[in-house]
Design a protein that fits this description.
The protein is mainly alpha-helical. It has 13 helices and no strands. Helix 1 crosses helix 8 and helix 2 runs parallel beside helix 7.
Length: 315
């Protein structure tokens, strides 16, 4: 894929669907349920299928075992830095809980996977999905209990615990099943039909649009304006501290430059929409998470990713 085509992908698959989603919100053409359904089918169909196709032809090496470890590091490095540097920033536990969750969760799957694909193709996408696997478990096993803790601190009473069935059997785990199936087919040396390989590129575009249009639709400037400046201190944590530490560790672990640079790309991604959903589900301050999501996403698309793209593709 040449540089001009990669640059076109940035506009078509990252910026355009966000703008269209926001336009649809302002004009109220469609109801919220339509966009929830779009997210549902993306998670139910497109991401599992992409996982199968990408891992089916992935060269298996022992180094790949380390990629899920980075999925955990990419949550705890920014989360720990935010807590150590700004742990007393908010007096209200609902605000503080939302702030910490927002620092921990980055858009590794949708945005990180697409950005890795733009630069490194199917291999970059597959590597990114290996990193994302462990973030799913961090969300449910760490972020959800942490959100409940901050909610209890604000209310002074204990909430009902989440069952193991709710933790494990969720549609968010379907890409993990796709990953495992792809690994199995690769390990069994089952050749991937050439026709299926032709479908991969259009599926990436469809998945990007069905993921990012709802994000653009969910952006409400009137609600997040109050918190935009107060969440900007997450930008250096997300775009400087986390990438530098992660890149340094990745260079010690991997010999494959694609794996090293995929870690760098994902370590630089903005706040995830899952942080907004976690805050919403557990009654934390949704506007803090949404403000960080908006501000860091804009910075990433307009500044951070273009710099990374230039450094990794232009020689």
């Amino acid at each position: 894929m040449d540089v001009e085509k990669k640059l076109l992908y940035i506009v078509i698959d990252l910026l355009l669907p966000l703008l269209i989603g926001y336009f649809l919100r302002r004009n109220r053409h469609l109801k919220d349920k339509f966009f929830d359904t779009m997210i549902h089918y993306n998670m139910l169909f497109f991401y599992p299928l992409l996982s199968v196709l990408s891992f089916w032809v992935l060269p298996l090496t022992w180094e790949l075992i380390w990629l899920p470890v980075f999925g955990v590091l990419l949550c705890f490095i920014p989360g720990g830095a935010a807590y150590l540097l700004f742990g007393r920033k908010y007096a209200d536990p609902l605000d503080m809980g939302s702030y910490i969750i927002t620092a921990m969760l980055a858009n590794l799957g949708t945005l990180g996977g697409l950005c890795a694909y733009i630069i490194y193709g199917e291999t970059g996408f597959a590597y990114s999905q290996l990193i994302v696997v462990s973030q799913v478990f961090v969300i449910f096993l760490v972020c959800y209990p942490l959100a409940r803790y901050y909610y209890r601190c604000s209310r002074g009473r204990e909430q009902a615990a989440m069952s193991w069935q709710e933790l494990v059997f969720t549609r968010n785990q379907l890409p993990v099943l796709g990953l495992l199936l792809g690994f199995l087919l690769c390990w069994l040396k089952v050749p991937r039909p050439a026709l299926l390989g032709e479908f991969f590129d259009p599926l990436v575009h469809i998945s990007a649009w069905t993921a990012l249009i709802p994000v653009g639709h969910a952006t409400d400037f009137s609600a997040i304006r109050r918190y935009l400046f107060s969440t900007l201190d997450l930008a250096p944590i997300r775009f400087i501290v986390t990438p530098l530490i992660s890149y340094g560790v990745a260079r010690l672990v991997f010999n494959d430059p694609v794996a090293i640079n995929t870690v760098l790309i994902l370590a630089s991604t903005p706040t995830a929409i899952s942080a907004v959903m976690t805050a919403k589900i557990h009654g934390l301050n949704v506007h803090i998470a949404t403000a960080s999501f908006f501000s860091t996403t804009v910075l990433f698309l307009l500044l951070i990713y273009p710099v990374i793209f230039f450094c990794l593709t232009v020689h």
